[in-house]
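Hey,
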Amino acid sequence: MRMTTKLCLSMATLTVISVPAFAQTLTWVGTLGGTTSIAYGVSLNGTVVGASLTAQGRWHAFLWDSYNGIQDLGILPGGSQSRALAISADGRVVVGVATNGASQDRAFCWTSAVGMFEIGTLGGARSSATGVSWDGTYIVGWAHDASSVTRAFRWTQAGGMQDIGTLGGTTAMAYGVSRDGTVVVGVSNLPQGWQRAFAWYESTGMQNLHTLGGTRSGARGVSAGGDVVVGGSYNDSLGVTRAFRWTHNTGITQLPILPGFLGSEAVAASCDGSIIVGRAYNPDSEPAAVCWVEGIGVQNLNVAYANLLSLGSYLYEATGISPDGRYIVGVGFNAQTNRSEGFLLDTGPTCVPHNGDVNRDGCVDDSDLLTVLFAFGAVSCQPNGADTNCDGIVDDTDLLTVIFHFGEGC
């Protein structure tokens, strides 16, 4: 059987096994009747969210899946526009921003059971939800306080909207949140006014992630465990932003520059932070969607997946990635429709469901059972491991799979 080599794979060390080749695909998600759409987020199963112009020229939040195509998520009562900016890993919760009856931006949450509803402000008139945790429990973003100052927030249904503070200045905005909601990343100003990327920890508060030597930076995404933060840092001498990756061990480090481009921005990271997506750009030319892969470097998605692009089509920016790194979304030019559209790039399965033979030795035995037990409750960033059904978490379903098939092949 023919085997395939994937670009943008997790770099985790794994037992090498043979798996069938799967076709990589590029799907343009279309529009809601208008001329443009943008994809912002994608779940583990490839459900895409974003915003599209309608035939009336207004932005509406959308949800796209392979079964139903693009679906209008609607607007808030009395409002006129909306944008979906993030989706939970399990695909059940969508968050974003929508106008209310007073034409004020308000953070919203959407579920299939309830529809779209506001989650409030910090006492002011405006807010926006920009990130959501793995199961939708935690939502982050920015909101105006009673003095109309922009502040970063973390929201839960039980606790409402919480102001998570600043780096000593007056304003802050949150963009990403870890799987369990205990780490939030974004940008805050210092007492001197300069903007800095931050990581906020539930236990210790907000930490300055600094810059790559310039005057300002901002964090846009974070890994599931909260240990890898990505974003952009402004290079004052060149007048462009450079993408960064931050960890506790390395601090802030510059990601490789795509040849032929001066600037770059990182906006999202896979579950373990080994795959990062964003854009490369020059001040006076079209940007390019890019992917940084740990141990490999930076890749222009237009080059890496040229065989999937029709003549004249082009990927401008990658705006989101699924936790397992399989799906990448963003915006590009679809030459077949002659318009800018959101896209879904399927790089192929990173996880193949199996019968519980975790170590692939041909026998479902106590070794496999122990592996699942020790990994129980963990985020499954590594493919073909203890996550037998590839739903992104090692749980009772995986344990039952091993128990049900125990002894097979032995």
